[in-house]
């Protein structure tokens, strides 16, 4: 099985490769894809070196699966190109999540909605995923009316630039900023931009994605999402009201 990892040199892409290796995923050929400036560089996977290739080259190789973590604009343009050659795309960006023609899937919750015809599968927001895994069995048994969730999300959710900002601030070094304020010894209740209703886009993702994944728009969700100065983990406080 050929597997392409789009965004292979990024923070999430490198973790994807690590998980594929740890789980001994049955791929026969790895196709790492990154920006043009990275083409030709080598990455290691299971003790073997693989050259990074361009998007066009990866599409021409017709992988069975393409794991995307290269941002929404890249997914919007290139996921359909992979799908056209028969590749099943699993996209980690927000590009396709609320598209009514695409499935938004957490395997433990709603894998049953997938069919062989689904060639672009959306992966939810990280905080939504961990919450709905806990909520779904409760909803099936007790019927959820309302969810109030507060998240405490690590800087790794933003990317390498945010990790660098945190580490630079801890060392007293000036450098590029991923956030409009200092993050070290601070918390920022401001993940993504604010929308017209006063919630941030991150908070609205949790509202809309939860309803779509669980297949029930009657569940009322309110969220407060907060960035905290840690690396490698998100936590949540979830208050649930049942019928």
Q: CATH homologous superfamily of the largest domain? A: NAD(P)-binding Rossmann-like Domain
Mean pLDDT: 96
Beta-strand content estimate: 15-25%
What structural category do the secondary elements indicate? alpha/beta
Distance between the termini: 46 Å
**Major sheet: arrangement of strands:** 2-1-5-6-8-7
> C-alpha Rg, in Å?
19 Å
- Assembly level: single chain
Number of domains: 2
CATH topology of the largest domain: Rossmann fold
What is the top-level CATH class of the largest domain? Alpha Beta
Number of strands: 11
Helical content stands at 25-40%
**In the CATH hierarchy, what is the architecture of the largest domain at level 2?**
3-Layer(aba) Sandwich
Low-confidence stretches: none
Form type:
globular
The succession of helices and strands, N to C, reads EHEEEHEHEEHEHEHHEE
